[in-house]
Amino acid sequence: MDAQKTQTPNHDEEELVLFLEPDQLVADRRRPLPRAKLSPRLTAFLLFARIAVTVFAGLAIYTFAAQLH
Amino acid sequence: MKPPAEAAALPLPSRPLTEEDLRRSEDRARVWLARLNGRRLMLLWLLVGPGVLVMLGENDGPSMLSYAATGAQYGVDFFLPFILVTFAMAYLCQEMVMRVAAVTHRGYGQLVLERFGPFWGWVAAGDLLLTNTVTLIAEFVAVRAGVAYFLGSSHFAGPVAAAIGVGLVAAALGLGRYWRWERFVLGLAVLNGLFVPAALLSHPHWHAVAKAVVTFSPFPGGSLQTLLLLLASTIGATVTPWMVFFQQSAAADKGLTPKDIRHGRYDTLGGAFLAAIFGCAALLAGAALHGHGGENPTGAGFPLALARVVGRPVGTLFALGLIEAGVVALLTISASTAYAFGECVGAANSFNNSPRRALLFYAVNVSVTMLAAVVILIPGAPLLSIALNANVLATVLLPVTLMFLILLANDRELMGSYVNSRLRNLAAGLIVGLVSLAGAAYAIESFLETVHVV
Q: Are the Cβ atoms of B22 and A9 closer than 8 angstroms?
């Protein structure tokens, strides 16, 4: 199927696409969703978790590197 | 084939249609027809895929080596039932992933980026890139270990393993659409079952197996660092960041809808069940080496040690299993990287696109595999250490990935009536707590030991 054909679908192809839900179409999936509203408390918790995970990952990588020597 | 009556009543879509839309709609038409005609087995056949693939994909080379190493070190004990528990955890997490995909039709990377902003989206993608690169190297290590068993020398094993891995990833990408790619990888993934005859031929002590499963004992002794490493790596062998990215993107690429959630659960549960059985089988095979102090059951030595102690058929089956486990994980993990990258930069990211239309997706898929292949060809590279630490790194980085998954699964604007129940949130919260504890405990304890504080 070439690129030109997909831009101008024939009737059979248009009917076939009805087997998809409207928001399954590529054009719909590329439409950005609105940003979620995160409370300040949740944002702070996520940042804390992120920092903790980064520190622990750093410790694990340091241990791995030290074991190589 | 005529479209469903309720859809036929709607106006035809005015948006430009892509080859991705048309190929996915062909797959959905077959699902609709099977459902209409009440063909239950056909419907199940059409809808299974992402769940089985993600679970058997996570029974990868490092995981199977980790299970076998645990069996060799501790025998049949606490870790056998612990594997079953971790796969129950994996099911709970991956069911959420499948449900979010079926309702939103979008990948995890895209949803995090759009709902929580570019910072969180790119940080999640960065975590994925780091853990996936390390894990892909570890997969090649496992494939090389299996190949070395047959070649009788590790000199050519690296290049042969690299050729097998890169060749299969490239071949799978040439299949032209998601359905064919999925069936190809599923066909390889069922060979994960090779660990079952390997376990049976190693004559496990069934009384000890039954006792361990029922009592979670004996609890392993030894150093705290080794125990924490095994706990963290066993968790990392069953729940990892790439699984979240992969199953959500694959389920969206397959075209799952809310009507398919029940079958998506069968798919995920079936995958978890098979993966748990095969994982336990690897541990039981490794347990045959327990008490044989003269053996060195690590990496490439595992199949050879099994061949010496239990017999050549067990060594051969284990070596073939390692090659399969590594190859399937190469296919799924490279796909998860390509999906995530495409989602974050907003480029086409589907196996239903031709390489011409999704150049970036295909290029990332192959190049990340080739990068890992190049690393295993470097003389003197610390491959075994990388393989053993890959799962641990995944465990340490997993909690934040799971937190965003839980937020998405509770997002009523996105999920409507498909949000998590209270019970599921409680279970998910416990999983995040356990994973965080295991990852943090290992990281802190091993660091303190390394700098000689304890």
A: yes
Quick: pLDDT tens for B337-347: 999 999 999 89
List, in order, residues 6 or more apart from B395 with CB less than 8 Å away.
B232, B233, B235, B236, B240, B435, B438, B439, B442
Residues B393 and A43: beta-carbon distance below 8 Å: no
User: Considering only CA atoms, which of B257, B305, B263, B265 is closest in space to residue B65?
Assistant: B305
User: Nearest Cα to B241, choosing from B143, B157, B129, B334?
Assistant: B129
**What is the per-residue pLDDT across B142-191, written as a single tens digit (0 to 9) for each?**
999 899 999 876 678 889 999 999 999 999 998 989 999 999 999 999 99
Separation CA B57–CA A21 (nearest Å): 29
Whether B105 has its CB under 8 Å from any CB of chain A: the answer is yes
Residue B212 distance to chain A (closest CA, Å): 30
Backbone angles phi, psi at B239, to 5 degrees: -130, 120
Chain A residues whose beta carbon lies within 8 Å of the beta carbon of residue B396: 53, 56-57, 60
Give the separation between CA B314 and CA B306, rounded to whole angstroms.
Answer: 6
Please tell me the distance from the alpha carbon of residue B302 to that of residue B7, in angstroms, as a whole number: 56
Which of B171, B104, B126 is closest to B330 using CA atoms? B171
Specify the number of domains making up chain A: 1
> Side chain identity at B82, as an amino acid letter?
F
Cα A20 from Cα B28, distance rounded (Å)? 7
Helix (H, G, I), strand (E, B) or coil at B348: coil
Rounded to 10 deg, the angle between the B241-254 and B178-189 helix axes is 130
ipTM of the complex as predicted: 0.82
- Candidates B16, B117, B414; nearest CB to A27: B16
Domains of chain B, start order: 46-450 (1.10.4160)
DSSP codes joined into one string, B273-292: HHHHHHHHHHHHHHHTTTT-
- Tokens 């209409």, located at residue: B36
R_g (Cα) of chain B, nearest Å: 22
> Which positions in chain B touch A65 (Cβ < 8 Å)?
none
**Phi then psi for B38, rounded to 5 degrees?**
65, 30
Whole-structure pTM value: 0.90
For the residues of B116-128, what is the DSSP string, one character each? H-HHHHHHHHHHH
Closest C-alpha among B258, B252, B263, B264 to residue B103? B258
- Between positions 348 and 367 of B, the ones with CB within 8 A of A are 348, 356-357
Both tokens assigned to A4: 């030109």
